[in-house]
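Troubleshooting log. The previous structure file for this entry was overwritten by mistake, so regenerating from the original sequence record. Sequence copied from the archived sheet and checked twice against the printout by T.R.
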Amino acid sequence: MAVPREGIYGLVAEFETPTELVIAARAAYDSGWRRLDCYTPYPVEEAAEVIGFHKNRVSLVTLIGGLMGLCAMFSLETWISTLAYPLNIAGRPTYSWPAFIIPAYEWTILFAGLSAAFGMLALNGLPSLYHPLFNAPNFRSGATQDKFFLCLEATDPKFDPAESKAFLEGFRPNSVVEVEY
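Regenerated output below.
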């Protein structure tokens, strides 16, 4: 295996149809590639399944955020009612948890929503103002309009510039270009 040139991000192949992309992505994944990605103008679920993309941690982040909001509000109300500012109103107990349910529910929704939004941004690595694929010809216009791209990244242990290019050209794409950082 040849060592990839310094400063190379990978190789990107341009396809006309999503079917061609899925066939190439399936073959690449079956051949042992693990650092690869598909870029399409609209979601192609089959491509995501083929390359093994199935992790979604936003729901876990949302659940943890909601539980933190619930615990934070119950703790705040308990502290206020029992320690910081206890009031004896008509002989009622200072700790009356049924009165805490509505504000705690609201904080649960608030924290869950905020952690879903910020968690999604963080897990997607956003905001990302630069990506090496923007240097590839036809990528900026094609990936958002009518072309389908498969990128084999140079960080994959299987990457060899010549062999990888020959592998991609075997699928008869419109073009195969080397992407630099």
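The chain has two domains: 8-55+130-180, 58-123. Archived copy saved in two places this time.
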